[in-house]
Amino acid sequence: MSTLDNVIDKGKSVAGEAFQRFGRLTRQARGAVTSVRHAAMPSRPKPNMDDVTLQRKVETIVFRPEGAPKGSVDINVAEGVVWLRGEVETPDEVKALERAVRTIREVRGVENLLHLPKTPAPTRADTPRTQQKTRRTAPRSAQPDAGKPGLRVATGDTTAPGEPTPNELASERSGRKPPPMGSDDPDAAG
User: Fold this and answer.
1) CA–CA separation, 153 and 142 (whole Å)
2) Side-chain half-sphere exposure of 113, counting CA atoms within 13 A
3) What region does 160 belong to: left with phi over 0, alpha with psi -120 to 50, or beta?
4) Are the C-beta atoms of residues 106 and 61 closer than 8 Å to each other?
5) For 132, how many CA atoms within 13 A lie in the half-sphere containing its CB?
6) What is the pLDDT of residue 52?
7) Cα–Cα–Cα angle for 30, 31, 33, nearest 5°?
8) What is the pLDDT of residues 57-70, one digit of tens each?
């Protein structure tokens, strides 16, 4: 009987090992199928990624390669749209930077305003005229707008009529006289 018990025990042991191996192989196969499925399916964009986080992500990806134009390219993000501004050396760099930004899933669009050396920066002619940013060639008038009541604008004259100017007081080495008692002058010490 002991031989029969030994054969049964040996059979149980072999069956147990085979069952464990089978379980290990099925888990490995399941993991391989899962990884292939994840590789084949595009990952979803991170929901609610704010513009600052997206800008940092774009900068990390675009400026990671050796020799990236970190100092000459600016990246801004507004509502998921990436704006590339600055100067790069070759047209291939312009295309490569835009292509790198477009590969990021959270990016909704790319506005490429990059330009080559000794060429003018591109302008946005399709922007409505009222929203275009332009440089001012002359300073604004110092007069207050008629449509804005109560707007105070300094005109450069800081002394009351009849008072000496600060330059005159400095040349005489005397200070400004204090206002009389009970005055409504806001500069009066009190």
Assistant:
1) 7
2) 16
3) beta
4) no
5) 10
6) 93
7) 65
8) 999 999 988 888 88
